[in-house]
């Protein structure tokens, strides 16, 4: 692939420019190509941080991504519920569900493979047992299928929107209405590919309902927060985060969607204040209703209590 830097590209990093022109590839993958000499600036290999000038010629020789392999690792897991078909994990913030770009170890899948001999294979070799996901810095209850029949049953329940998922979210600002519904399609941000957005016409339908549990701090002023219970009927990437940010109330700690990096008088949170509190589904074999809850993590409870 041959790219050319325009006047507006002057001063940009080489890896930044290539990622902007080829957003289908992750920036970390492009950085690897640069280090391997697969990206050349005016015919010469350069560093990812090399500044680009207007008129520079960039040659890119893409490489196939190395295959991902899920490897068992002895990582402790908190089990909320388990039967012959399903196991419910209390996922901590910071744990990635399965391997992906830049992450190959320390995942939930790696921990599951160490604990269980077999899991559902419907999701493929890199995602055994995984029926749904939580963002890396979101904690809470997550279902895993032990066999293919259970996976197919749970997937059908999710697709039919028969699985109830409730979250707790602390957001910036005072949410005035006691309850509300956000019904806006979500799509990948065409400029910042790590983000999702509701600002483009094309998108997948998504709705989030919320109910105010507690308002903290001076209403309508800086330093005000609102604790919400959120229910989602769809499971889009970053759904609750992007929906709440779209109404001017980003989740605390979520700098990707506009939350400040620090809150005056409080230590850095180091994660999002978003927790998958409750899930309700039908047991795949018996059809009986199962409702599970994950307690709010101590670090979130303590951080919120420190607001007064």
Describe this protein's structure.
With 308 residues, this protein is an alpha+beta fold. Helices cover 17% and strands 26% of the residues. The strands form three sheets. Strands 5, 6, 7, 8, 9, 12, 13, 14 and 15 form a nine-stranded mixed β-sheet that branches. The N and C termini lie far apart (57 Å).
At the fourth CATH level, what is the homologous superfamily of the largest domain? Pseudouridine synthase
Proportion of helical residues: 10-25%
Sheet having the most strands: 9 strands, mixed
Q: Termini, distance in Å?
A: 57 Å
Number of domains: 3
Strand content: 25-35%
Query: By helix and strand content, what is the structural category?
Result: alpha+beta
Q: How many whole angstroms does the radius of gyration measure?
A: 22 Å
pLDDT below 50 for ≥5 consecutive residues: which ranges?
Answer: none
What is the C-level CATH assignment of the largest domain? Alpha Beta
Q: Helix tally? A: 6
Following the backbone from N to C, one meets helices and strands in this order, namely EHHEEEEEHEHEEEEEEHEEH
Give average pLDDT, whole number. Answer: 92
Do you know the CATH architecture of the largest domain? 2-Layer Sandwich
| Tertiary shape | globular
Overall strand count: 15
Q: What fold name stands as the CATH topology of the largest domain?
A: Pseudouridine synthase
SSE inventory with pairings:
Blueprint: E1 2-4, H1 14-21, H2 27-35, E2 39-41, E3 44-45, E4 57-60, E5 79-82, E6 86-91, H3 108-115, E7 139-145, H4 148-159, E8 164-172, E9 179-183, E10 187-188, E11 196-197, E12 207-216, E13 225-232, H5 239-246, E14 274-282, E15 289-293, H6 298-305
Parallel strand pairs: 7-14
Antiparallel strand pairs: 1-4, 2-3, 2-4, 5-6, 6-7, 8-13, 8-14, 9-12, 10-11, 12-13, 14-15
């Amino acid at each position: 692939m041959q790219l050319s830097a325009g006047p507006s590209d002057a001063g940009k990093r080489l890896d930044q420019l290539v990622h902007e022109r080829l957003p289908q590839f992750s920036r970390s993958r492009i950085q690897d190509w640069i280090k391997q000499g697969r990206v050349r600036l005016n015919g010469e290999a350069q560093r990812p941080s090399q500044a680009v000038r207007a008129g520079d010629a960039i040659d890119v020789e893409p490489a196939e991504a190395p295959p991902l392999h899920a490897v068992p690792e002895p990582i402790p897991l908190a089990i909320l519920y388990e039967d012959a078909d399903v196991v419910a994990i209390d996922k901590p913030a910071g744990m990635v569900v399965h391997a992906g770009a830049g992450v190959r170890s320390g995942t939930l899948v790696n921990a599951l493979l160490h604990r269980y001999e077999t899991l559902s294979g419907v999701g493929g070799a890199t995602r055994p047992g995984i029926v749904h996901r939580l963002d890396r810095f979101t904690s809470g209850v997550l279902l895993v299928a032990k066999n293919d029949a259970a996976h197919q049953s749970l997937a059908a329940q999710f697709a039919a929107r028969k699985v109830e998922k409730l979250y707790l979210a602390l957001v910036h600002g005072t949410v005035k209405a006691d309850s509300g519904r956000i019904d806006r399609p979500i799509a990948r941000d065409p400029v910042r590919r790590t983000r999702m957005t509701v600002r483009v016409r094309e998108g997948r339908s998504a709705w989030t309902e919320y109910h105010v549990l507690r308002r903290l701090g001076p209403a309508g002023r800086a330093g005000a927060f609102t604790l919400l219970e959120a229910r989602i009927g769809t499971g889009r990437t970053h759904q609750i985060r992007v929906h709440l940010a779209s109404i001017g109330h980003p989740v605390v700690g979520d700098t990707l969607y506009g939350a400040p990096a620090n809150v005056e008088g409080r230590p850095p949170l180091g994660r999002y204040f978003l927790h998958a509190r409750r899930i309700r589904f039908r047991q795949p074999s018996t059809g009986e209703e199962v409702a599970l809850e994950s307690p709010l993590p101590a670090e979130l409870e303590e951080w919120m209590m420190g607001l007064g």
